[in-house]
Automatic annotation (TrEMBL):
Residues the record lists as binding Mg(2+): 9, 36, 157, 159, 257-258
Protein name: Exodeoxyribonuclease III
Domain Endonuclease/exonuclease/phosphatase: start-end pairs: 6-258
Keywords: Hydrolase, Magnesium, Manganese, Metal-binding
Marked site (Important for catalytic activity) residue numbers: 228
Gene encoding the protein: xth
Amino acid sequence: MTVRIATWNINSITARLPKFLEWLESAKPDVVCLQELKCSTDAFPYDPVKALGYETAAHGTGRWNGVAVVSRIGLDDVVRGLPGQPGYLGEGAMLEVVEPRAVAATCGPVRVWSVYVPNGREVGHPHFTYKLEWLAALRTAVRDDAAGARPFAVLGDFNVAPTDDDVWDPSLFEGATHVTPAEREALAALRAEGLVDVVPRPLKYDHPYTYWDYRQLAFPKNNGMRIDLAYGNEPLAGAVSDSYVDREARKGKGASDHAPVVVDLEL
């Protein structure tokens, strides 16, 4: 059985809906993990996605976050939010908010988590501490699935570049988030639960970045970062037949600032 899974920070499903539907028809993924929906759960465009044969488990509040799993091979055992997920007490807020940054589902033979890791803002900021706490909660949440016999993957926008090779100019990121030892150690701790990067180097090009800023011609210059990742357990990693970053989906007016990451499995 061939299964194609993907992850894509869509940067507003409402704004990118025509591009997303076009991509579903052309790339034909079986499962897509989406991040940064920027819509509430109820406002997700279920009907046009369903018309192409896909079910959706969405989790959002209408702000800048929100995640979803979109599948045409089944959608069972949905979990919205990480068990034990920390909340964030924003500036001026009276109560901690548990943000919609994770959703899991079983899609046919595969179980997936779609995750949107907090940005961290800047080193030393409370949001940076929140980011590390969130990654620790993710590690706990995936432990049992990662150790199981069922193919399992956690995919999404991790807001961490695993190595210096995953940013176009490491010198520009000194002292900034996304590249700190603490963030990379948190990713390494997650992988230590039995997960591996299933989009290894080299691909068809030297630098398979997944995110490029809209400003300063970052995409044409390939001034990017690889922060959208796919980590799978041994049963899933052993079934990978191909993987790629779909740079074509980043091109053109009105595109997301991220490209989809696609993984093909032979199960």
